[in-house]
Amino acid sequence: MRLTTRAAAGAxxxxxxxxxxxxxxxxxxxGFGGAAAARASACYVYNISxxxxxxxxxxxxxxxxxxxLAKGAKLPCGTDGDSGTKGQRYTSCGGGDSWSxxxxxxxxxxxxSECVAFGx
Length: 120
Known about the structure:
Layout: H1 2-21, H2 34-41, E1 44-47, E2 53-56, E3 65-69, E4 74-76, E5 85-90, E6 96-104, E7 107-112, E8 116-119
Antiparallel strand pairs: 1-4, 1-8, 2-3, 5-6, 6-7
């Protein structure tokens, strides 16, 4: 009797493991834009610099400033997500030439990539 109880418990445990290991459906929800939309909607740009970061109309300091991202603030990622765009060199936040898109007032803006971090 004791052996039968252990066997039944073992079989039940294996059954639970088999259910947990079954792959989940990879189909996107209806009305959802797929993986790219999921990544964009879960992506935020965080200001990690020591002060406000200028948001520009293009990837460089020669482009018009269209806003600022306050120290410690976040805004949604732009259409490029967390991939940088090579543009004009800058010296802030250690310098570089990579610019990241950010959504501000319903459109894309660009911030110096070295001044921000990406997250959810």
